[in-house]
Amino acid sequence: MKKITLSLFIAASTLFLSGCLVSSAISTAIMVSNDRRTAGEVVDDKGIEFSLFAWTGEEKILENTHLNFLVYNKEVLVTGEVPTRTIRDHVIKQVPTKDFKIKRVINEIRIAKSSGLLSRTKDSAITLKTKLAFQSQDVFNPLHIEMTTENRTIYLMGALTTREADKATKIASTIGGVKRVVKLFNYLKTIPAAEVARAKEKKAEAERKKKLESERVVMEAKKAELRRQIRALDPNSGTDF
């Protein structure tokens, strides 16, 4: 009986993990397809983040620190708290050595006691509220922005036009609890041509569907009128029309 139970548990766990992997893969594919970075650039950035987080868990000097990394286009934002200036300098010196692809390190580390669970939870809430607010506008694609919040300061990264960046910054600055918004964008002169083409295709498809729906409504009205006329001419005749 125990063997059967264990087998069922393993099978269920395998299915669950497989489902998670599929869901994760689909989510990643959607994000990459909407990213202004190439798939290779996204993979490189995620690889850099993984290397840095792995490093912080291995180095003894970093045991009493709280560090976060956000990477966009091989530029690394380092946030969090460390107890001394010496440790902060050590971190900033070591980060570029962890992956040869790193182009720039942005130091936003505070010399302070590690933030507590309450502070980090509030930061997570600010990030969530900001991402939700980004959904309620049509100037930029929210998936074009990477963001994190540390000590009530929002950091924004991504490749945006000036208009898009200004809109994102304005929205972020209105979120309750935010002290500061830091823009770390790679500015684009224009929206990429491929995106413009996709937007036109999407608009054309939406207009086509709207037209078809309008025609359907008209035909349904005509159908109802013809049914009424048939019944008026011959009340006893049945019709499937």
TrEMBL record:
Keywords: Coiled coil, Signal. It holds the Pfam family BON. Residues 1-25 form the signal peptide. InterPro entries: BON_dom, Lipoprotein_DolP. Residues 122-192 form the BON domain. PROSITE patterns: BON (PS50914), PROKAR_LIPOPROTEIN (PS51257). Residues 196-229 form a coiled coil. This is BON domain-containing protein. It comes from Catillopecten margaritatus gill symbiont. The lineage of its organism: Bacteria, Pseudomonadati, Pseudomonadota, Gammaproteobacteria, sulfur-oxidizing symbionts.
